[in-house]
Amino acid sequence: MAQTLLKVSGLKVAYGGIQAVKGIDFEVREGELVSLIGSNGAGKTTTMKAITGTLPYGGGDIEFLGKSIKGRGAWDLVGEGLVMVPEGRGVFTRMTITENLQIGAYIRKDKAEIAKDMDRVFATFPRLKERAMQLAGTMSGGEQQMLAMGRALMARPKVLLLDEPSMGLSPIMVDKIFEVVKQVYDQGVTVLLVEQNASRALGLADRGYVMESGLITMSGDAKVMLSDPKVRAAYLGE
After folding, report:
1. In the prediction, which pLDDT does 23 show?
2. What element of type H or E holds 67?
3. Residue 178 pLDDT level (bands cut at 50, 70, 90)
4. Across the beta sheet with 67-68, what order do the strands follow?
5. pTM of the entire structure?
6. What pLDDT was estimated at residue 197?
7. How far out from the chain centre does Cα 211 lie?
8. How would you classify the pairing of strands 82-85 and 159-163?
9. Residues 149, 154, 155, CA angle at the centre, nearest 5°?
10. Do the Cβ atoms of 23 and 49 come closer than 8 Å?
11. CA 73, CA 60: separation in Å to the nearest integer?
12. Domain topology for 30-42+73-208+217-235
């Protein structure tokens, strides 16, 4: 069995007096694409923020590469390979595409390898290469999503966390983003994908977890879950 890279055990997260995550367990193994699905307000983004060190957690633990991340800063975790593309993309709007990608590699010193990775990102996202000197703020939402993913790849993630990558995008751009997620996964990157678009997320994943009201209510093989009547009724409108 592949090595477990990320393990969440009994995780509880509260903020603003609300218990948003109520004691959840899941894991991501090397080489997997794991989808965490659920409706808006289920606690998915809160979970992602706790995993990346941007939101403190109260109970339970999160282990990355076999070590607890409790109390560690997000910048520290990025250096070890735990990298997130946040909901809403978060690109640096007044910087060019190239500058945004360079920021993704700010913790690295291997200039020759950084240049190779830049070429690789441009090969994955030809649209970014065409517009390398364009300001990120002048791009469409889908193009900014590609840039945010490219920037994360520049950090050479061991686990890439994608938080709602298709949110607010046109159907054509949603297709493109999911193509790119598959491409990144096929290149050997381990992915944890948080998505409201359950059919697309489970269609791509090896395993899935369903989150409702701060709890994980179902888990299993993604293709089996995709044909489960309860999942179909709740998330696929059937």
Report:
1. 96
2. strand 67-68
3. very high
4. 18-29, 4-15, 59-64, 67-68
5. 0.92
6. 87
7. 16
8. parallel
9. 105
10. no
11. 18
12. Rossmann fold (3.40.50)
